[in-house]
Design goal:
Layout (H helix, E strand, L loop, with lengths): L13 H8 L4 E11 L5 E10 L5 E4 L1 E4 L6 H13 L15 E5 L15 E9 L10 E7 L1 H4 L2 H5 L5 H11 L5
């Protein structure tokens, strides 16, 4: 008799996830969807509009957990498709490199990033998308901002958990902020 090992990525049951979140960091990806011109200059930044558990509405990046036995590239594609739709046409490089690593803590003030549920480590990417983007899942809307609008205090004030800081880092990384 041969033993078969399950290698298909799967979510943890809610009780298991809660238990793990309390004991170890969880790996995430954050993706900043952008539109670029023919020369590769960022012309628009896509931000999701989401309803938070407390009933408030906020702007957000594409974000989510990396599954066990899942490549980072596959996690990026899965979350971009989940939030932006199946024809967003993300252009992920052959060897994706994050522009930064964000560490979210349940204790506010340790870093600029805060997640009251857990300690999470997120690899952050800027991903050009060329297709038709339509928000899905729990996203209420997707709005394309100019880099200047995305960096404005008004838009930054609509983002929670430090994602506004992460967005500003992304914009600086691609030369859209001084």
């Amino acid at each position: 008799m041969t033993e078969k090992t399950e290698t298909t990525p799967a979510w943890l049951a809610p009780e298991e996830l809660e238990s793990v979140r309390g004991r170890m960091p969880i790996l995430y990806i954050d993706a900043v969807p952008v539109r670029v011109d023919d020369t590769g200059v960022v012309t628009r930044v896509g931000l999701l509009l989401r309803m938070l558990p407390d009933g408030t509405v906020s702007r957000a990046l594409v974000s989510g957990r990396v599954l066990h036995h899942e490549r980072i590239r596959d996690a990026l594609l899965r979350h971009l498709e989940k939030d932006l739709g199946p024809v967003a046409l993300p252009r992920i490089p052959v060897s994706p490199q994050p522009f930064t690593v964000a560490e979210y803590f349940p204790t506010p003030g340790v870093t600029p990033y805060h997640d009251p549920r857990q300690h999470a480590v997120s690899l952050a990417y800027i991903v050009p998308v060329a297709g038709d983007c339509r928000p899905r899942q729990d996203a209420l809307d997707l709005v394309w901002f100019t880099p200047e609008e995305a960096a404005s205090p008004m838009v930054q004030g609509e983002m929670t958990g430090g994602q506004g800081v992460l967005l500003r880092q992304a914009l600086a990384h691609v030369g859209c902020l001084p």
